[in-house]
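Marked as duplicate of an earlier ticket. Keeping the data here for the record.
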Amino acid sequence: MKLGLCEKCGHPADARYEIRNNSVYLVKSCPDCGRTSSLVTRDARKWRWKRSVAQYQEPAGPACSLDCATCDHQAHTKPYTVAVDVTNLCNQRCPICLAYVDAMGFAYHPPVEYFDKIFKHFLAQEPRPNICFFGGEPTVHADFLEIVRLARSYGFQVQLFTNGIKLADKEYCRELCSLGLQVNFGFDGTRNEIYQRLRGDSSLAVKKRALENVVECGVNKLAIISTVAVGINDDNMREVLDYIHTYRQHVSVWGFVPLTPCWEPGKVKIEPTTTECVENVFEKMLPDIEFVPTGMMKFEVLSRFFGRQTLGGSHPNCESATLLISDGEQFRPVSTYLNVPLSDLLVRLRNLDQELLRAKNAVPQNRWRSLIFDAKTFFKTVRVLAGTLNLGRIFGERRFSNMALAVKDLLQGVKIDQILRERTSFKHVLTLITIPYEDVGGLEDARLRDCPAVFAYEDVDTGRVRTTAFCSWQTVKDAVCRRIQEHYQAREQPKRRSRRA
């Protein structure tokens, strides 16, 4: 038996998947509200394939309570990414959004000390998580630059999710980019009518100017985030891809938020978009492309070479991802450079990772055993890669010298993405990732249990910093933020009276 959230009351309820006409629904049976259901995907075949290729085993019983108001996610899953809502103030009034003042019924803009408590809470964690700032629109918080400086002073890697409007101010953009953060820039298309439908404005020109500012000001890392709505901007994705290619030296990630119903009833008439809808858009554009569950990229031993996954669930029906490689003229799927499907390569690497982890845990490690283990890890990894990569296409004319230098780098612990950039024809790699974090109706217990991304907040009644799984934040956000705002507002009032006196 599974647990999901009732469509009417929002409480945990018994749930099960139903497949009808190649669509998957999560059907909930609430003792108070009866039967409700949510569309999970219109592509049941692909939904099943992801479970198969990830070798997913459905838990025999509920994996968690789905009572996110009382649970603390960090108690059972150490987060790699910590998201923080900065404010619900915004410089746009998107009809598809409920995370702003009018929809929530109050203004939320806690002081710097609130964020300081959250940062200090995660200082002792190893590895230290990334900090991601969300809103509303984080940049309209009066103290946002100070908040970023504070996080950076503690040594955190910082990401900002922004609509980009404020970054059209070049001086502000320059100051922000100088702080060494990753900017996740909202860009939904290259046509004005798309912004009229999704954002209720004509912000395309402002966004283009802001994006140019970000590039000119030398941002540390740049990602494009597109909300994808079938029937509105799905046919514009090729133009967006070409537009991103002009910025290929700067943009490393293109993320997609499938648009699911997260607006006031009756306000917007748009069909739900799912992760598989986004994938299908790109499969029509680039027939050789292959999206895989991001959990397949989560390694323990091999993270030394491939890096540690920071955003992305472990569940096969959560986020999905793939890679595009620029040949200087256009982006091509990574499959162009592989002798096997991407999913097959990841299965081989995952099997190797599990084998190495068992071997490592079976024998107590000392200095010499660690050296021998590292050597075995290296040679086994190289063997897997050599059997699956199209080495001629990847290393080019100076194939053997570039391969030798790449091996040397790998032995020295250089990350794969840097080796690819410096030793191969993979000069510009674009990661594509779907981020279905607003899909509240499709939440179920197993999908949340092992998620390495959380939203963090202060429980102002106890002073403790608590967390909830990334996707479940929407279920507790309004009540939590209201209580935080009331708490800090009540503390500020005596200070104001004292200053006036």
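See parent ticket for discussion. The mean pLDDT is 90.
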